[in-house]
Amino acid sequence: MSSAALRFPAEWEAQSGVMIAWPHDGTDWAPRLAEVETTYVALVAAITRFEPVVICVRDAALRQHAESLLCEHAGTSIDLGRIRWLELAYDDTWLRDSGPITLIDTGSGDRRFHLLDFRFTGWGGKYRAEQDDALVSRCFELGLFSPRCSHAPVDFALEGGAVESDGAGRLLTTWACLHQRHPERDAQSLTAALREYLCTPEIMMLDRGYLDGDDTDAHIDTLARFAPGSRIVFQGCRQPDDKHHEELTAMAAQLAALRNAEGQPYELLEMPWAAPIYDESRRLAASYANYLIVNGAVLYPSYGDPADRAAADVLAKAYPGRDIVGVPCRPLIWQNGSLHCITMQLPQGVLS
């Protein structure tokens, strides 16, 4: 398969489904398992309104437990026929970072796919990751993916949350994350690697912007996202007394300096800032940029904050014609991630 024929699609393109992994008592969710399961039930209900969902489970007992929780809500909100179960081992549930990054073979008449399996190191060795690093290969072994998909192991540490594609040859990422994973490389070397592996000619690398409570070293999906029509949705902070104000304002200036394929600036759509949320003294990363796009809808993280409504209004402007659906994500940020982080979309045709 020629790299010249491969394309990294945008998330808003047609999908065959979304992958998630159900939390269990062997993951870091154990102390608050019942609480976070309410988010997973709401998420499955939201996804299945629009497309199938693949739910990874540790074993048959966990599947039975998850099914019972979902069945309690099936009467009104969950299409159980759109759920596909997959039993395999995993360390944790952040499939955005351990799942496959899909490239589409644009030179193929029957639409083939190249599923990239980058090294997953537990965000630079912060957590155990052996089982998560093997997740993509196990999915192939279990027959999850179509015969039109090829498995492509890549000896390079990269997470899906670290890269954002517009589907037309441009990619957003951050220096902080890539440098932490590859301290021996400079920006030029990292840019060249992303161009090669992701078949994306233009790499836009931000070096400003971060969120307290994010242990990914500034994943782009907590900060800024491409949207159709040459738009970028980004997480802002207009509170001058908040420690994030300076960094996110500087990031917004960097985004304003970017140019699209026609040499024009992007239309920037600023997400509102939620009031600080703490776990005892630890501030949590309540980013509204961490939303998930599915067929016909955008699912966004809600935090029980007045800014939730304003976030939905921004997304309605960024993705006209799609339903905007809130998913309660306050339990997720306790473990330093949010809605986009626990999901991985699969382009149309990838599922068997």
From TrEMBL:
UniProt xrefs under InterPro entries: Peptidyl-Arg-deiminase_porph
Pfam families assigned: PAD_porph (PF04371)
Record GO biological process: putrescine biosynthetic process
Keyword Hydrolase set for record: yes
GO molecular function: agmatine deiminase activity; protein-arginine deiminase activity
Keyword Hydrolase found: yes
Coiled-coil annotated residue ranges, if any: none
UniProt-recorded name of the protein: Agmatine deiminase family protein
Organism: Pseudomarimonas arenosa
